[in-house]
Amino acid sequence: MITELTKKAARHLQETSTDVFIKVADVTFRLVGGDPSPEVVGAMSRFVVDTSSDAEVTIHTSWGELGEENHGRQLFDSGSLWQLYEEDEGYRFRLAGVRPGQSTYKIARFNREFTRGEVVCDPRRTAPDEPVYPLQYPLDELLMINLLARGRGVEFHACGVSDEGGRRGYLFAGHSEAGKTTSARLWQRQGGVELLSDDRIIVREVGGEFCMYGTPWHGEAEISLPLKVPLTHIFILRHGERNEVRPLGKAEAAAELFGRSFPPFYHPGGLDFTLEFLDRLTGAVPCAELRFVPDESVTEFVRGLTV
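RE: above sequence
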């Protein structure tokens, strides 16, 4: 049975462990663990920061043998690795293997704002020499999606390009197979650009300006950088016989972007915020459908449009 960490236990963990700080899209996460101390692996290691400043999210980590007890009222079942439940104090994620009947290997509990939490890993489901990253995918992305939906921003299925030394930011949004990875590789060959991600981009409104951020959740090209740039142009990707654009009105642009975003459908307030955010975003940043051919001519075509 998993119980809430008491204040005394939480203080003990804090005093006896080395904290790890991660910063994604200007949201700082603090991982506090005892035995084992949390580690960060993979692309997320690029987002580790050395900071003693206050974190927006604090997560305590521990070991515990997990059973199959009642987890609360189920809100969502991914049909794969995770399910989300509602409890009296907040929410609980259950993570288990993808095959039917596979047992729970991790439980994550959060308050209703997703700013405080506890992650319990079952040592029986972890190889002895395997690094212990408590927020291992998909939990880290699930946590971010829920945080964003509470007034912070939106994550998109998109490739992000920083051009002209960070003065221009292009968001290329698309479903799977729409050309995000192809676009990322084409832009990689150009001078004066940086790729934020080839698959997941976060957009936030900062001081009245929309900015996009790289994330650790990359695609096939494995591009992920902890960068932030102003968002100046949005393109909905389509394959075409030639390079051409069709400007989109606000309503159509918002609908296209909503279909390529990751709102928590189980949270009505989060859905409302996402729709309001898209309304503001499409009113502030030019949006167009981009039909393109998969060669370097499209990069010069886009630059010509944005001069």
